[in-house]
Amino acid sequence: xxxxxxxxxxxxxxxxxxxxxxxxxxxxxxxxxxxxxxxxxxxxxxxxxxxxxxxxxxxxxxxxxxxxxxxxxxxxxxxxxxxxxxxxxxxxxxxxxxxxxxxxxxxxxxxxxxxxxxxxxxxxxxxxxxxxxxxxxxxxxxxxxxxxxxxxxxxxxxxxxxxxxxxxxxxxxxxxxxxxx
Length: 181
Hints:
Blueprint: E1 2-3, E2 9-16, H1 18-36, E3 42-47, H2 51-61, E4 66-76, E5 79-88, E6 98-106, H3 110-120, E7 126-135, E8 149-154, E9 159-160, E10 176-180
């Protein structure tokens, strides 16, 4: 339970336990490890919500790799702000590299589309996405079939925990929940 931006108490219902999240990250790491064992991938994390997932995933990959980050903004006070803004671009060379984008959640798919298109223009040898949560929603524009590594599928609810926030709150939760207002 926490307090929302407007001072309203928010109840959080647990959807996936800490153990379920841990197992999901392990399963994704195992698949990536098998696919990229000798390929020194460049892992690019999407900030801010994906930092916890990326940290846990990278620790469990146990293969040579490099890490970088990107940050795109599309939300203001839980409402879409319209046009996406690039706040932080990757700084490591992408051309000719095997790149994996690590994203916390595909809510609409707009941010992931923007990041993948931007990275594709830098001519990587390969480009894949690893997403912890894929939201089943009519708003989603990024097809699940185009994401090579998908952890969990969730209903169209407001997700918090495990790095994902609601007005900068609840990132610290070790599990994944949804906000019940």
